[in-house]
Amino acid sequence: MLEQSPSAWAKALDDAALARTQIDKITGTENGMTMDDGYEIQRALVARYVDRGDTIVGRKMGLTSRAKMEQMGVHEPIHGVITRAMHISDGDAVDPKRFGQPRVEPELALFLDRDLCGPTTPAEAARAVGGVCAALEIIDSRYANFSFTLADVVADNASAAGFVLGPRVRHLSDVEISNLGMVMEIDGLAVGIGSSAAILDHPLRSLAALANLVYPATLPAGTIVLAGGATAAVAIKPGQRVTLRVAELGMTQFQLLEMM
Ligand code: 0L1
Ligand code: MG
Q1: Which of 47, 165, 172, 207 has the maximal Cβ count within 10 Å?
Q2: According to the model, what pLDDT value does residue 203 have?
Q3: Where are the alpha helices (DSSP H) in the chain?
């Protein structure tokens, strides 16, 4: 049982995000906090986004690659929600004041054109997918120095902060996505080199895991799913341009403007 209510913790996280500041991890105060508590706080946090006019457009899987799991010292993936306000158009230049301590990850996005409800297998999950494209995720922890436990980061909506979708959307039946080469560059320098196979061994395995994690909830047709990072996250600074190239899926990029 939490000492403070989930909505009080959600407000603390939301206030930190809006002020681009960070708080100490919740488990520093709430010793007995569980993963279920984390997801309850996440739901209260997302409800705050919706209450102020934002719209849920999809889900994200987090901690899907071995590199990410090692970076964070954990062994299981988590999930969060992505909203319209987090979307950055391909090629856009973004005000760095939007973020506190941004990092970027190379990902794939899957577009559901049918409802998906677990329990499911990767092969069954594939039948709900229409398109796939290259994607960049910007994560931003509301905890000082990205220091948290798994339950803390779940509460913080899996550090979701922004995402960019590549312009080349291909139908899943036209492209084999099990082992696509992925190269992420910052200002032309390769900072992350990986394969879509690093996304929980297969991006569709990540999708099936998401459906199973949210079960009995359904992932409705129209949902965008960020399948998870193929490499560890890399910090980005004002003025830098991030580019992702994915074999068969092309390029996507964005830039952080200089700090004014
Ligand atoms: O998308 C991710 O894999 C990030 C999940 C949360 C962990 C982090 O903030 O690095
Ligand atoms: Mg991610």
Answers
A1: 207
A2: 98
A3: 6-19, 35-51, 66-72, 122-126, 150-155, 203-214
Q: Which of 45, 63, 200 for mutating ligand 1's site (highest number of atoms within 8 Å of CB)?
A: 63
- For 59-88, write each residue's pLDDT tens digit: 999 999 887 788 777 888 999 999 999 999
Distance separating alpha carbons of residues 14 and 180, to the nearest angstrom = 36
Structural tokens at position 143: 């905890």
pLDDT at 20: 95
Binding site membership of 158 for ligand 1 (Cβ less than 6 Å): yes
Query: Could you tell me if 163 and 82 are in contact, meaning their C-beta atoms sit under 8 angstroms apart?
Result: yes
From CA 170, how far away is CA 5, in angstroms rounded? 44
Q: Which atom, in ligand 1's list, is nearest to the CA of 78? A: 5
Token pair in block for residue 155:
């509460």
Q: What are residue 138's DSSP bridge partners?
A: 104, 162
Protein residues with C-beta less than 5 angstroms from the ion ligand 2 = 105, 137, 229
Among 48, 117, 87, CA closest to 224 = 87
**10-36, pLDDT tens digit by residue?**
999 999 999 999 999 999 999 999 999
Query: What are the C-alpha distances in Å from 192 to residues 53, 120, 172, 195?
Result: 35, 31, 24, 10
Report pTM: 0.97
Whether a cis peptide bond, with omega within 30° of 0, leads into 216 is yes
Whether the pLDDT of residue 132 is over 80: the answer is yes
The burial of 241, by beta-carbon neighbours within 10 Å (0-12 exposed, 13-18 middle, 19 or more buried), is given as middle
Report the sign of the C-alpha dihedral through residues 67, 200, 165, 146, in that order: negative
Using CA atoms, how far apart are residues 201 and 123, in angstroms rounded to an integer?
A: 14
